[in-house]
Amino acid sequence: MTLQNDAPFTIAGRNFSSRLLVGTGKYKDFDETGAAIAESGAEIVTFAVRRTNLGQEAGPNLLDVISPSRYTLLPNTAGCYTAKDAVRTCRLARELLDGHKLVKLEVLGDETTLYPNVVETLKAAETLLADGFDVMVYTSDDPIVARELEAMGCCAIMPLGSLIGSGHGIQNPHNVRLIVEQSSVPVLVDAGIGTASDAAMAMELGCDGVLLNTAIAHARDPLRMARAMKSAVEAGRDAFLAGRMPRRQTADPSSPFAGRING
Amino acid sequence: MHIQLNGEPYTLEAGLTAADLIDQLALTGRRVAVEINEEIVPRSQLATTRLAEDDQVEVVHAIGGG
């Protein structure tokens, strides 16, 4: 017997072997950022676009640490609260990366929850798709909104597990499962992952991938947590493909009854 | 000449181009993107784009984020 290979993980026409996507925020320094990302095995790495600090000595650049030749870069619109700002940010990112089309769209509702503002997200997605962007979209775990975003042409649907940076895991696995079952484009849990079992759970629900940042960056040992996340995503994916055993109300011995010495 | 640069007032000589501004900011050769009055200025056009009074200029770069 031999194990069948998994289907490739495809985003916007490109195949990837890692189903773990990571952010670059909240690390102690660029050395830790680079080492943790390398340890995670991630191939797609997200970053933010911000005003340059004027009048300060320019230090090392993030893009020297996560080189565009090694990683598929995923600029995000974190911090945008309107469709207009998100679209401007994506256009700046495209210029920054010499015509790069893949973006992570997130339009947030308020600073307390960072919950997606789906009305503005839908508006921004429409403009970006018309402008030729490949849009991976952060959204609520609402299957109807997810279906709408897919119908518009988004290349990946990314419902939150729980609030960004909260580490509360997947609060509504049933909704995530509904989104997975109805979608023909990749579904990734983006936000809320706190530890390895949360990432494994996302994959066991049938998600195509997981995007996380704080769970690694704010672990006591980020490099070890990066490795844990890599293993968890792989284990969860294998468990999903394998298909779990049915649950039973009563015990079912693994050793046969027949031939017991007390029989 | 006065412009708004990254949300702050900034004074510079009249007649300068966006490339001159980037040079003044010691950002030449750095990976940045420039927007003037909410329109992207492609890198290839920085040297030919003249700044005007009250322009709203944004100069951005990549930073860590999730």
From TrEMBL, chain B:
Q: In this entry, which stretches build a coiled coil?
A: none
Superkingdom of origin organism: Bacteria
Entries under NCBIfam families matching the protein = thiS (TIGR01683)
Q: Which PANTHER family match?
A: SULFUR CARRIER PROTEIN THIS
Name listed for the protein in its UniProt record? Sulfur carrier protein ThiS
Q: Which organism is it from?
A: Halomonas colorata
